[in-house]
Amino acid sequence: MTAGEPVATATVARAQARALEPQSEQGSGARRSEARAHATVVIPAYNEENGVAEVVRHVGEILSAAGIEHEILVVDDGSQDGTAEAARATSARVIQHGANRGYGAALKTGIRAARHPLICITDADSTYPAEQLPRLIAEAEEADMVVGARLSGAVQIPLARRPAKWFLNTVANYLTDTRIPDLNSGLRVMRRAMALEYFDILPDRFSFTTTITLAGLCDGYRLKFIPVEYRRRVGKSKIKPIEALNFLTLILRTMTYFRPLRILLPIAFGLFLIGATKFVIDWFYSRLSGTSVLFLLAALNTVFFGVLADMLCFVRRHRTAPPL
Fold it and tell me: Do residue 164 and residue 286 come from a single domain?
């Protein structure tokens, strides 16, 4: 399905196209979808002069060998080294930010400038396997976004960050009611129209991929997660420990926007439990106080605002014509 097009229409169109093809060609679906694909590869780069040229060269070789018409777009996010010069020495189109605006801002710039309906994103540090891009592009024929989910054993997470990452993933799984193998992978293929739909809420920092994953799941877009290996990066990581707190804030804010009852109902239940417990204790000692009433009213108000927010989300989804 393309963004905004009903699934049924897309399915019928594909079925008609396949009915007209010779039977001998129907066993090569992946090769046919690759041959028809037109994709823009967006590579955000910040101080990656040692790795960006090799990534561009490798991505170009892989996609050309697969017969995929493509362009490679490097967005230099205000680098202070020779990243832009290294990228210009390749076949890539290069866009520069005058100052460092963030990972998400670089992706937005690249998506806006893209010439093709499919957007592939990867990093400039050689951590993601470009060999998987043809497969992800082929899978995108039946999905709105295909995510290269990093194998858990391949991702080296510092011991101090593991509890925070586990907590963030648990919260995201609960709020979306989906098991998400990789919430913020930087290797994915998505439809440009889908990404543009969420530009107003997509952040400019590292949480871009997290937000668009949560938004797509909540709005009923078809997401696929394909296991990929994850390699040692070239250069130093740009993610700081404080980003964990930013990710949590972002997850809660995003889910309040898409599924407010998932957050507000547990809060209301907690307030009700406190108020009811206090009321029983006061009743037992024959000294009723206003505290229990205050908590019970707070629970009622939270439910009311949650239902109101959920109705507004329902109206928003219908106005933006989500996929069926």
Answer: no
